[in-house]
Amino acid sequence: MFPEFTLRYARLPERFFERFDPVPVPAPRLVAFNRALAEALGFDLAAFDEARAADWFAGNAVPAGAEPVAQAYAGHQFGHFNPRLGDGRAVLLGEVTDREGRLCDIQLKGAGMTPFSRGADGRAPLGPVLREYLVSEAMHRLGVPTTRALAAVTSGEQVFRRVPEPGAVLTRVASSHLRVGTFQYFAARGDQEAVRTLADLAIERHYSQLHPQLLEREEGDDETSGRYLAFLEAVAERQAALVAKWMGLGFIHGVMNTDNCTISGETIDYGPCAFMEAYSPTMVFSSIDEQGRYAYRNQPWLAQWNLARLAETLLPLIDPDHESAVKKATAVIEAFEPRYEAEWLAVMRAKLGLTREEEGDRELVEALLAALEAGRADFTLAFRRLSEVTQENAPAFHELFENDGALQEWLPRWRERLAREGVGMEEIAARMNAVNPLYIPRNHQVERVIAAAAEHDDFAPFEALAEVLAEPFTEQPGRESYALSAPPAERVFRTFCGT
Q1: Cα-Cα-Cα-Cα dihedral sign, residues 261, 263, 266, 270
Q2: What is the three-class DSSP state of 245?
Q3: Rounded to 5 degrees, what angle do the CA atoms 17, 294, 369 make?
Q4: Burial class (CB in 10 A: 0-12, 13-18, 19+), 40
Q5: How far apart are CA 499 and CA 132, in angstroms?
Q6: At CA 473, angle to CA 469 and CA 476, rounded to 5?
C-alpha cells in the first residue's frame, strides 16, 4: 500500500539521528485516515486493508523499504537553550515522492520511548492527536503552509498526563522535519561540517533555486558563501509569509521555540495552539506560557528571534571572516521586519476587500483592530460578516460588538476606501468571503470531539467537525453552530502540550 521510500535523511552520517524501531502497541485501531492525502502521496488505495494499515500507522509493522530513525535536534525553549532535544516520541519512517514530484517525510508521533525521550514514555494521548489532526488539516484548507495528518490510530493502552487518557499515534506528513533547532544541535557542538550538510540538504529539498551559479556575488564573495546567505534570506521570506497568515487568521501557535520553527516555512507541532475568539493582541492560551512570551502580538518578533538563532549557526558558512559574516547576517535579520510588515499588510488588505495599495491602509487596518478589541468582537466572525456591510446595514455584524462606538467611526472610512477600488460591492464581498473563513477549529468544538472520543469511544463528532473544516469558506446549511463562538460555559482559555 505504501509508496516507495526514499531514505534521504537515514543516509546522512549517523550523528544526525538514532536508529529506532517503533514500539508496538497492544491493540491498534485506525480511527482516522486521510484518503485524499494518501492518494496525493501515491498510496495504493486499491490494496488498502484497515487492519494492516492500523499496524503500520501504529508502528506495529514497519512498511517495506522504511528505515525508522529518531532525528537529533536542539532548541531554545522559552528563550533557554537545551543542547539535546530530538524526537522524543517521533519516528521518521522515511521520505516518499508524491504525485507532484515533491519529497515528503512520513513520521509516526507517539511511537515509543526513543533515545531522545529524556525519561518520558514516548507515547501520545488521544486528545492531542485528534487536535493536531483537525487543526493541521484545517490550516491546510485555510491556505497556510503546514504539516499534514495522514492517519490516527488508537493504541489500546492508557497514557498518563494530567489524568489517564487513551493512547494514540499520529502519522504526520511534512515537506521535511528540518528545524532551526536541527542546525543548533550541530553548531553547539562545533560541527561545522554537519551544519553545511544540513544547509545543503535544506537547499536541495526546499530552495533548489539557490544554485551557486544563479546567485549574484558581492565583490570578494565566493559562490558558496553567497549561497548560504541567500538560503538564510529565503528562510526569512517564508517565515514572514507564514506568520503573516497566522496573524490574519487569529491563530496563536503557543510554543514558538526554535525546535518548532521549520526551515521549510511550514507550521509544525500543534500543541497548545488556538484560534482566538474575542480579539486581544495580548491573548495567550498555552498553559506553560506564564509570561506571555508567545502571545498573539509577539509572534512576528519571535519569528525574527528564531531566525537570528539560525543565522548564528550559519555564520562560518556565510563568510570565513566573522565580523563580515555577522554584518551580512544582521542585514538579513533586520530586513525581516519590513518584509513581514509587507506580507501582513497584504493579508489584511485582502481581508478588507482591497486590492489596490494606498498610503493610509495600515492605519485603516489598525483602526479596525482597535475597534474589535474595544468591542470584544469575535475576530473570525467580524471579518467574515464585514462583507455583509458592503450590501446592507448587517445587524448580525453589529451584534458581534459589545460596544460599537469605534466601529461606527471606522465604517465610513472603509466605505470611502472601497469606493476607490473601482469594482462593484458584490465583487468585493465575494473576494472577502474567499479569504475570510466562516469555520475554524474553535477550542470548545475541538474539546467536545476529544471528550466524545476519549470518554465514549465516539468518533462521529470528530468526523463531522473534520468535514465542516474541509470547506472553511463555504456556508454549510444546517451547520451554523460550527461558526459560532463558544458559549460562556464552554470557553477555553488554556490549552496544553500533548503530542
Answers
A1: negative
A2: helix
A3: 140
A4: middle
A5: 8
A6: 70
> What are φ and ψ of residue 266, in 5° steps?
-100, 150
Other CB atoms within a 10 A radius of the CB of residue 352 amount to 20
Residues 6+ apart with CB under 8 A from 48: 1
Each residue of 100-130: b (16+ CB within 10 Å) or e? eeeebbbbbbbbbbbebbeeebbbbbbbbbb
User: What is the domain partition of the chain in residue ranges?
Assistant: 5-177, 181-344, 353-499
Alpha helices in 106-158 (DSSP H): 126-141
Q: What is the pLDDT of residues 47-77, one digit of tens each?
A: 999 999 999 999 999 999 999 999 999 999 9
Helices (H), 165-298: 180-187, 192-206, 223-249
User: How many Å apart are CA 191 and CA 252, to the nearest integer?
Assistant: 34
d(CA 342, CA 244): 9
- 312: exposed, middle or buried (Cβ count in 10 Å: 0-12, 13-18, 19+): middle
Side chain identity, residue 34: N
pLDDT digits (tens, 9 = 90+) for 104-158: 999 999 999 999 998 889 999 999 999 999 999 999 999 999 999 999 999 999 9
Q: Write out the catalytic residue numbers.
A: 259
Q: Is the pTM of this model over 0.85?
A: yes
Nearest CA to 19 out of 84, 72, 73 is that of: 72
Scanning 4-161, the segments in alpha helix (DSSP H) are 35-41, 50-58, 126-141
Beta bridge partners of 132: none
User: How would you write 329-370 as a 3-class SS string?
Assistant: HHHHHHCHHHHHHHHHHHHHHHHCCCCCCCCCHHHHHHHHHH
Which is nearest to 155 in space by CA: 59, 61, 64?
A: 59
